[in-house]
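Supplementary Methods, section 5.1.

A reviewer requested that the exact input to the structure prediction be made available. We therefore reproduce it here, unchanged from the version used in the analyses.
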Amino acid sequence: MKKNAAPPESLSFRKMSPHERVTTLLEEIGVPLSEGKWFESQHPPVERANQWIENAVGYFSIPLGFADHFVIDGIRRRIPLAVEETSIIAAASAAAKWIQQFGEITTSAQLGENIGQIQFPSVSDARAAQEKIQLRSDDILSFANETVPGLVSRGGGFNRLEVRILERGFPFQTSMLVVHLFCDTKDAMGANLINQACEIVSASIAHLIGEEVGLRIVSNLADECRVTARITLRNIDPALAIRIEEASRFAELDPYRATTHNKGIMNGIDGILIATGNDWRAVEAGAHAYAARSGSYQPLSIWRTDGEGTLEGNLDIPMSLGTVGGVTRTHPSAALCLKLLDVKSARELARIVGAVGLVQNLAALRALCGDGIVAGHMRLHVSNIALGSEASETELPLLKTRLENLFQDQKRISALDARNILSLMRGGR
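The structure derived from this sequence is encoded token-by-token as follows.
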């Protein structure tokens, strides 16, 4: 999808068959139809799995779908989401369509440097050790860059270092020293490169300060690599906008609510990260650490209204990801998702990911501040309960209808209700 803030709609993407959706996606971006086999077969040969992980036996497939109606920074996109949870894709698509009608999504990315940590657990004179390392910082960085020549040739590499002193407190007589190596990883996440450099460089630093080295590992709190996303809506129901702001303030005051608020953001972020072969666990861990950076767990997004129908939401989140390296290119489905997104860099992908997280957040808040989350999920919830009841293909349509009617009457349904209805159906009543 290219730049077009209000594209003409043809056959609804939602109403297509899975095969029609795959064909549409491939034709839109000019990808050969033969590549669609990776979506429909769901996985490459098991031998490939054995190359990626240890003790492989096969694949555990997660449904892959595309959210529709997204216009991010003026570019229309369909968003790949690998998710197993009901309603995530439907809610994101509906919220994106609402944003198209009443506002816009804008993003920016500050993709700085990822951090490698070298720990010295017990240093007797931390200030002296800190000074020695700082005086030799240029030599240390040059040595680190010798370990990543390919990255340096692409314009990346280690640019600076920082020495932190962590006081251990009573009863310890020593301090902990941590060296941070800051690395521009370009379009790769770069964890393995950073780990490799930290392990090699650590020996020379240990020799320099005469101390024993501890851990040498990348940090997943990538607060030097951050994405901001903004949604602005105008002329919406002022009462709804006020309720959304109050929901945001609830999360700002209460960590129990903030946790679920952020989980809604990560529903979208994790889905696109998995679909593109990125390390969603690393981004998730970094996001929650960033949310707690003040000492109190906070929401990653804030919503405010002017009280007259204008609503603005802002998301600020650390985002270290890649469009090269790992399985982003070696997993056929991940590579195809990246191709269909038509992204040219990790920065562009990060901005899309941030936007998806904020849209997913708005979708949840809109539902919670309207009819509630259960009503919005009812149709798909009914479908899941019906599918779990062991009903046959011919019994499913009637069972779903009766479950929907029951929900309308009593505002709740369960697996037991499905079994009871199915028993009555089979009894001829």
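Residues 374-426 form a domain with the Helicase, Ruva Protein; domain 3 fold (CATH 1.10.8). These observations are discussed further in the main text.
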